[in-house]
Design brief:
With 281 residues, the chain is mostly helical. It has 2 domains: 1-175, no CATH class; 178-281. It has helices at residues 5-20, 27-51, 56-75, 85-92, 100-118, 120-130, 132-137, 142-168, 179-189, 201-220, 225-243, 255-261, 265-279.
């Protein structure tokens, strides 16, 4: 679990806007700066969690505090600069055109699904998450695999911060904070196991779709922000309860019970999409 995602999104968005300062010619270098920060943050989380043996929750929470403090010290509480307009067009579309971010999302879904199901890295990642000791005995480098995963997480968080800054047309402090609870909720809804070893990107995508529609629905009914957070918390609890496994080997006659208690990824995805469609009616 990576709790530093909101802080990395914020610092990446702030640095991107400050470096680009609204100039298209500085888009590439601003993007490189933001991505570099995300990679460094992910590498630090990986080394601290895997090499030093610090619990991931403690390590990522500490790095989140450090990054947030550094961001506040860098800006002095005043955020300057703005992202190039091309990033906003990428997120929202221009003149009624189709937002290219949706195309990027489809490509990302295909790539991630292929990597997790067909590539050596995906299988090693699932093995390490399920049982690091058994994976290491099987010849898989648990250190390299886990650390690279944190690096990818930091990279994705940095890109997310850039996209949020482009969508808003500016950067601001704590811009990544709303995504802390959301990131946990979509993973829970997607059927991933918090113990590791089980997960599905398409399920997570379905969870994100559900929460987006739910947020839109709550906004339509003019619910206060506090109630929106409460609803998200309830959704997380319900998703975890639904994924709770039933009796284990101590009760062999209850195996069918276990199947009912542990919803499959496909079942969770279908239920998520169905609920999302129902909410739009």
């Amino acid at each position: 679990m990576d709790l530093s995602i909101p802080a990395v999104m914020t610092v990446s968005g702030v640095l991107f806007a400050a470096t680009a300062d609204g100039q298209p010619s500085r888009l590439v270098i601003a993007l490189l700066v933001s991505v570099a920060v995300g990679i460094v943050a992910g590498l630090a989380n990986g080394l601290g969690s895997v090499v030093l043996g610090i619990h991931p929750v403690v390590m990522t929470l500490a790095s989140s505090a450090i990054i947030s403090g550094a961001t506040l010290g860098y800006t002095g509480g005043l955020v300057t600069g703005s992202p190039p307009k091309s990033v906003g067009h990428f997120m929202r579309g221009s003149g009624g055109s189709f937002p290219m971010v949706l195309v990027a999302l489809v490509v990302l879904a295909i790539v991630v699904t292929f990597v997790m199901r067909q590539s050596t890295y995906g299988r090693r990642l699932q093995a390490v998450a399920l049982n690091p000791v058994a994976a290491r005995l099987g010849g898989v480098s648990s250190t390299a695999t886990a650390t690279s995963t944190y690096v990818i997480s930091g990279l994705c968080a940095a890109l997310g911060g850039v996209m949020v800054a482009g969508l808003a047309g500016q950067s601001y402090l704590a811009m990544g904070d709303p995504y802390l609870l959301t990131s946990v909720a979509v993973v829970a809804l997607g059927g991933a196991s918090f113990a590791g070893g089980h997960g599905n990107f398409l399920g997570t995508l379905g969870g994100a779709l559900l929460l987006s529609l739910l947020a839109t629905l709550l906004t339509t009914y003019h619910l206060a922000e506090g109630w929106r957070v409460i609803v998200q918390g309830v959704v997380i609890l319900l998703a975890v309860i639904a994924a709770k496994p039933g009796p284990t080997a101590d009760e062999p006659l209850q195996e069918p019970h276990k199947e009912r208690g542990n919803m499959s990824i496909k079942t969770r995805l279908v239920a998520t999409v169905g609920l999302a469609l129902a909410l739009t009616r």
